[in-house]
Amino acid sequence: MLRVSFARQFINTLIKDVKPACTANAQWLHSSQCSHRPVQRNCYSRLNSQWTGHLHKLNSSSTNFVSHHSVATLPPPLPENLLFRQLFDYQSYTYTYLLADQNTKDAILIDPVLELVNRDVHLIEDHGLTLKYAVNTHCHADHITGTGELKKRLPSCKSVISGSSGAQADVFIKEGDYIHFGNLSLEVAATPGHTNGCVTYVMHHNGRPVIAFTGDALLIRGCGRTDFQEGDPETLYRSVYDKIFSLPDDTLLYPAHDYTGQTVTSVAEEKKFNPRLTKPINEFVEIMKGLNLPYPKAIDKALPANLVCGIVEMPKAKKT
Fold first, then answer.
1. In degrees rounded to 5, what are phi and psi of residue 110?
2. 3-class SS at 155?
3. Residue 118: pLDDT above 90?
4. Would you place residue 69 in the very low, low, confident or very high pLDDT band (cuts 50, 70, 90)?
5. Number of helical (H) and strand (E) elements in the chain, helices listed first
6. C-alpha 12: how far from its chain's center?
7. In the 8-state DSSP scheme, what is residue 41?
8. What is the DSSP-derived secondary structure letter of residue 215?
9. What's the rounded Cα separation, in Å, for the pair 242 and 253?
10. How open is the CA angle 54-57-63, to the nearest 5 degrees?
11. Is the pTM of this model over 0.90?
12. Which of UniProt's keywords are assigned here (predicted)?
């Protein structure tokens, strides 16, 4: 009874003291459009000091309580010069990511969508950025990439995709390569299984991974389908475990799609809650083989276009 009483007291105190700081930091944690500024570090400092104080009380009063309960960790701090925007396409449920070095103004776009190139260009111009690369996590089957159109609009831009994708691009990447923009970079991790050319892009800071852009290999509480376009469930399972679940537990994971309104997850969350990938490999394979998903409605148009960098004839604006 004493342990339960203490636990209740601890939780009530934690809610009262930490909630204001959490609220102040909530926009950074959950917003789909966030810029990481020095204020982020202040929120971290306040949260960390409060958590440390409460945990010290908890350790001194009930060692057994701590040993049998886990405490959620905060996201790792990101580079102070990182400009980050998470953008969304309501038609294909695709996330596009703008990353830039705020000091040098060099930028990259991950998984741009053709119909939303105007949005992306305006955002780049608003921030005075130079788009160095339009990067794809794989050759998509559910939308046409905006890479080709971006290259027409912004001559500084080069297209980037895995050499295993079979698609055309200015730059072909492979496992262990780095994509540099300003003083920031992304490491390439090959994560095939959804397609042969799937890659995950990992950002490091302070000598450790802090963010990974997982494409369709790993989604929030799900994963990419494996029933077409060179898909293989066993390969996908091993890719996720070897290249993504091997990252630190607090690494933030940003997928290429989400269909439920979620924006970000973490390695720890997916290792614990992903209903498919928490299963043994043989069960995962059976789950994926039994999904019986419908034929992708955009694949016959999107896939051929994406194999040539998304270069298609744009529809002309209607006269008014």
1. -105, 125
2. coil
3. yes
4. very low
5. 9, 12
6. 33
7. H
8. E
9. 15
10. 115
11. no
12. Acetylation, Dioxygenase, Iron, Metal-binding, Mitochondrion, Oxidoreductase, Transit peptide
Q: How many residues does the chain have?
A: 320
pLDDT digits (tens, 9 = 90+) for 232-244: 999 999 999 999 9
Please choose, from the candidates 19, 10, 15, 25, the residue with its C-alpha nearest in 3D space to the C-alpha of residue 75: 25
- 120-151: pLDDT as tens digits: 999 999 999 999 999 999 999 999 999 999 99
Name the residue type at position 90: Y
Amino acid in the structure at residue 270 = E
What kind and span of H or E run contains 153?
helix 147-153
CA–CA distance, 32 with 155 (Å, rounded to integer): 28
What are the φ and ψ backbone dihedral angles of 52, each rounded to 5 degrees?
Answer: -60, -40
- What Cα–Cα distance (Å) separates residue 174 from each residue in 171, 196, 245? 10, 12, 20
Tokens 């630190």, residue located:
248
Two structure tokens written together for 126: 């608003």
* C-alpha angle 60-62-68 in degrees, rounded to nearest 5: 125
- Which amino acid, residue 256? A
Round to whole Å and give the CA distance between 148 and 125: 18
CA atoms 292, 298, 300, 302: torsion sign: negative
Q: Give the C-alpha separation, 77 to 297, whole Å.
A: 40
How far is it, in rounded angstroms, from Cα 191 to Cα 85?
Answer: 24
